[in-house]
Amino acid sequence: MSDISNKHGCTADSPQHVLHQQIEKAQPCLATKLECDRGDTAEKPPLYLPQSEDEYPSKPENTMGPLGPWATGKVTCSREGGITGLRPVADRYSITRYGPSEWRAHNLSIFQQSNERICEAQLTAGGAKQCVEQVYAAADKAQSETTEHLKTRAKVVYGWKANLEHAIAAIAEEMELLEAERRRVQRSLSILTIPLSIASEFLQLRTSRLDCDLVRDPVEEQLTKEIALCTEIRDLLSRIREQIEMQMVELRSAKIRTENDWSDKIHTYNLDSVCVNLTNDSPLLLWKAGATRFPADQSTPTSYEHFTREVLADGETTRQRSIKLRSTLNDIYAKSIKDLHDQATRVDIALAKNAELTQDCLQQLEQELLRCLHELADIEKLIETLKCSTKGLNNGMKLAQTRLDNRLNRRNVESCRDAPQFALIEEVKSLGKQTSAVLAELKRAEESQAELVKARGTLEHEIMVKRKTLYIDKERGQLLRSFYPSATESSGF
């Protein structure tokens, strides 16, 4: 019993300890009763108890008369008189009510009443002791079961808390990765302004080409496609950035919700741990009025598990959407950057081909100009030769005409149409035709010279145009294209 009392916190002043002391005090009374019973059977009872000669009900030994002027001595049978049937006779000094046998009977009734009370008290003490033992055993069992329930619940809460911690760590890691992707997209948007500006500036440069070289060639077409592709990729990355920002908001919301549940789990686990470690000897145990109430907002184990699973499921779903978005972003980067650099390669190839073609054309024009200059020099020489030839023919014409004129001065019969006359006339005609032919050739040579001079000017202008085009495409354009960002830079790394 003392072990149970100590286990449940009984002290020397507690009600349980007082009850134990009363039970121990009742034990000697029971022994006295047993001794009295044994005395009744073995010896004559004491003189203060009824004797064998006493009769029930007892008869008065004699009638009491008045003992003084104030005593009435009236005989009556009433409730106050009891078994004596006598009304008390009293004077100033005494009251006489019972006889000796009545006194002994009264003593016996007192002892019997006391014995009955003592027996009842002993039975009560035994029942109380048994009740206390049962109550303390039941309390110990209930307390042990409650402690085991608390331990089990604490383990469950700890398990959910660990799951929430893993979920929070996974969401935080995913947020860092998504934030890195957002910065990567932002850098890509900044880097993609470079190829866009390069293509736009190159197109602007190529508008300064001259005359017939201001043509919509493959280089210009590829540059236009490159500008459109850069604009499309930048628009796509801008939409991806907005999706990333929205996904970041969802991840933050899921993380906050998970952290709130995790914080509640930690608080609950700490409370349950304190409750598990509490004992009956723990300090600061207080009466808590109304502690057994059921708050209206309490959850059930089913709703509790459903809520926690829902929090974990929402967090995992949000994280998976973020992972999918990142994988989609990687695919977009791979395809977009490949398309962009393929287009840049096509532009460079078209530019190289156009520059090579222009260079070949320039070389041919320069050779043609050299030929034209050589031919122009030959024509000039020819013109000089023809002019000299004309002078020689003129002298021959003068000679023939002078001879004819001199022969016209012959007199009489000497003015004869002889063979020299006809020969001179034929010579004059021949020289006229020859002179006309030479003059015609001279005119054609001069016209050819003029055309050659015009062609030389045209060739020189075209050479200047081609050199201007080559300067724009090769010197300026290729230098500008050399600043085109690499695939790694375009990917935001």
Describe the structure.
The protein is mainly alpha-helical and 493 residues long. Helices cover 76% and strands 1% of the residues. The chain contains 8 helices and 2 strands. The protein has helices spanning 2-7, 15-42, 100-191, 193-206, 218-277, 301-407, 419-481, 487-490, and strands at residues 89-90, 95-96. A two-stranded antiparallel sheet has the order 1-2. Strand 1 (89-90) and strand 2 (95-96) form a beta hairpin. The longest helix has 107 residues, at 301-407. The two termini are 80 Å apart. Mean pLDDT is 81; it is low at 1-20, 22-34, 36-41 and 59-77.
Give the topology.
Elements: H1 2-7, H2 15-42, E1 89-90, E2 95-96, H3 100-191, H4 193-206, H5 218-277, H6 301-407, H7 419-481, H8 487-490
Antiparallel strand pairs: 1-2
Helix pairs in contact: 2-3, 3-5, 3-6, 4-5, 4-7, 5-6, 6-7
Brief rundown of the structure:
This protein is mostly helical and 493 residues long. The protein is built from 8 helices and 2 strands.
Arithmetic mean of pLDDT: 81
Structural shape: rod-shaped
Helix content: over 70%
Helix/strand order = HHEEHHHHHH
Describe the strand arrangement of the main beta sheet, using strand numbers: 1-2
Key structural traits:
493 residues, disordered N terminus, mainly alpha, single chain, two-stranded antiparallel sheet
